[in-house]
Amino acid sequence: MQKYTKTSITAIFLITAYLYSPAQSAQPGRYNQLSKSSYSKQKDSLKKALVCPVLFKKKETQKKYKEFWDSRTDFITAAIDDNDFTREPAMYNYVSEILSELVSANREYIKSYPLLFIDRSPSVNAYAIGNNMVAVNMGLLSFSGYREEIALALAHELAHNILMHPENSMKERAELLTSDEYINDVKSVLDSKYGRYSKLKKIMEGYSFSHNRHTRYHEEEADSMATILLKNSKIAFAPGFFLRLDSADLVYKTPLKNGTKTYMSDLNINVEETWMRKGTKGLSNRNYSFSQGEISDSAKTHPDCKARYEKLLPYATGNTLTPISASLKADVNKSIIWSLFVNSNLTSAFYRLLLEKDRGNFDAWHKVMAAYIMNGLFYADKKLSRFNVINIRSKEYISSNYYELQTMFEQFPRDRLESSCKECFNQPFWQQASADERSFRSLLAYLNFTGEQSASEIKSMRKEFQESYGQSLYLEFIEQIK
Ligand SMILES: [Zn+2]
Predict the structure, then answer these.
(1) Per residue in 360-390, is it b (16+ CB within 10 Å) or e — as a string?
(2) How far is the centre of ligand 1, averaged over its atoms, from the C-alpha of 152 (Å)?
(3) What pLDDT, in 10s, does the model give residues 386-441?
(4) 212 CA to middle of ligand 1, Å?
(5) Fewer CB in 10 Å around end: N or C, the chain?
(6) How much is the pLDDT for 417?
C-alpha cells in the first residue's frame, strides 16, 4: 500500500487537472448531456402533466383538439429520444440564468419555472411550445452577440406562452377544421365536377391568408409583451437585434478568408482546382454571381425584421449590452459542428469549421473533427450515399466559398479521397487528441480501410468503446453504426 506524501498528492492533483482540463473542455459536451438521458426525467413528468383538457362540447372538435394536443406531446418526447436537445452545462446554465431573471421579475405572469429546452438545431430561432415550455436553438446562441439579445428572444417566447398563443392556435384549428363552414366548403369542392383543384386552392388561400394575418398579430402581441417582461427584469431592450436578425439566414453566405485549397493544404490534404468546378455534362454550368447580399424576404426565417425594428424603436431601454463570452461562443459553435456531423450534414459542418478557423478558434478538436468529416465523406461514399451527406444547398443561400467546398466534396475522386482520409488519420495532432478520440478514429479506420469487415468485429469494437468511454460524445455517432 502506498503512502501519500505531499509530492504524490501534488502529482495526483496535477494529473487530475491535466485529465479534466485540456482534453475534456476541448470537446463540446459529454454523451450524458444529450437529451435522451439528461431530459429523461422531464420526459416522464411531461407525459403525466400534459393531459388534454376538455374544452369543447362538440365531440368532433374535442377529438381534433386532442389530436393536436397529443401530437405536440409526441413531438417533444420524440425530440428527446432523437437527442435533439442538449443540457451541456455552459450553454444550458447561461440561458437558464437569463430565464430565471425574467421569471422572478414577472411572477404575476409566470407562476412556475418554465421547462427549458436547448434545441441542437443550427437554425437561428427559439420557440414556445405552450404549457410553460420554451426552447432556444443553439443556432440562436451562436448568432447572438449579446446576453440581452437572448433575453429578448426568450421574453418573446415566454410572451407567446403567457398569451396562450400555442394553446389558442390548437383550439382555433380544431374549431376551424370541424366547423360546418369549412366542411361545407370542402364538400362543395369535392361535389363539383370541374375545376376542383382551382376551387380548393381558392378556399385554402382564403384560410391561409387569415391564418397569416393572425400569426402576424400574435407576433406583434408577443413583441410588445416581451418589452414589458424585459423592463420588469431591468434587462436592456435593444431593438437593433431585429435588424441583425434580418441576416440570420446568411451564415453560409459568410465568405471565407481563403480559398478551399488553402484550408485543405493546411490540413495536409491536397486537392485540385478542377474538383471545385462543376464539370459534369448535363448539369447546368451557367455562371452564377454570388452576391454577399440579401435573401428574398419570402425565403427568410424571420421576415418583417425592419418593420418590427421600427415599431419597437421607441421602447428601447438602456444601451449597456453584455457581450456573450468568446469561450461560450466557441463552445456553442463546436456543438453545432458536432450536431451537423452526427446528422450527416458534412458540408455545413466543414464550412463552420473553416469559419471558426477564420475567427482564430482552431484547436486540436477542430483538427480531429476535420479528419472525422473527411472520413465520414468517404464512409458515405462507400455506402453509396455521398450526395446525401453533402446535402447540397442552393446557390441563393451560400457563398462562392461554400459552393467551392460543396463541389469539391462532390468531385473528390474516390481513390484520392481514400488516401487523403488515411493521411488525415496519421497527422501529428492526434498525439494531442484524447483517448476516446483516438479510439473513435480506430473504429472509423476499420470501417473505411478494412477490406473484409466482420459484423461481429464492429460489434465488439462498439461494445469496447461503450465500456471504456461511457460518457464520450462520440458514442452518439458510434451507436448509429450498423
Ligand atoms: Zn413569435
Answers:
(1) ebbebbbbbbbbbbbbbbbbbbeeeebeebb
(2) 11
(3) 999 999 998 889 999 999 999 999 999 999 999 999 999 999 999 999 999 999 99
(4) 12
(5) N
(6) 97
Q: Is 116 helix (H, G, I), strand (E, B) or coil?
A: strand
Residue holding cell 443553439? 138
Q: How confident is the model at residue 286 (pLDDT cuts 50, 70, 90)?
A: low
Distance 454 CA to ligand 1 centre (A): 51
Is residue 196's pLDDT more than 90? no
Q: Rounded to 5 degrees, what are φ and ψ at 135?
A: -135, 140
**What is the reported pTM?**
0.89
In single-letter form, the type of residue at position 336 comes to: I
Alpha-carbon dihedral angle through residues 397, 78, 72, 119, given to the nearest 10 degrees: -50
* Alpha helices in 267-325, H assignment, sequence order: 305-312
Q: Which residues are within 8 A (CB) of 17 and not within 5 positions of it... i.e. 6 or more apart?
A: none
Q: Is 6 helix (H, G, I), strand (E, B) or coil?
A: helix
Residue 319 CA, ligand 1 centroid: distance in Å: 24
Question: With 0-12 CB in 10 A as exposed, 13-18 as middle and 19+ as buried, what is 429?
Answer: middle
Q: What separation in Å is there between the alpha carbon of 302 and the centre of ligand 1?
A: 10
pLDDT-above-90 percentage for the chain: 68
Which pLDDT belongs to residue 292? 65
Place of cell 409566470: 110
Q: What is the mean pLDDT of the chain?
A: 88
User: Which of 191, 190, 186 shows the shortest CA–CA distance to 206?
Assistant: 186
- Whether 299 shows a pLDDT value over 80: the answer reads no
> What is the longest distance spanned by two Cα atoms in the chain?
94
